[in-house]
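Batch manifest, entry 17 of 40.
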Amino acid sequence: MDTKIKKIQRGRRRKRIRAKIFGISKKPRLSVFRSNKYITAQLIDDAKSVTLASATSKNIKGKSVLEKAAAVGLSIAEQAKAKNISAAVFDRGGYLYTGSVSALAEGARKAGLKF
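Output type: structure tokens
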């Protein structure tokens, strides 16, 4: 499949998802971005348009992609606990809920963050 078509399809999925979810300070949106090399997660308060916490796999060395994603999920959940956030709304960013996206979510759940 052509990469231009894939980008358009992901954009449509992303808009459809974002129309339905909204993060507030007590239950922020956990936004996921996945590139070919890294995976990034942010806790976002949409009411104030502020990023509350963020984590990336750039600093993690020598692990598989899924282990890096789980470590990012664990890191974002620990930062959320430090800010007294126990629940979040999961925004997969138009990506399918498989592989590194689901590993990130499972890592965050293991650390105590609820979706």
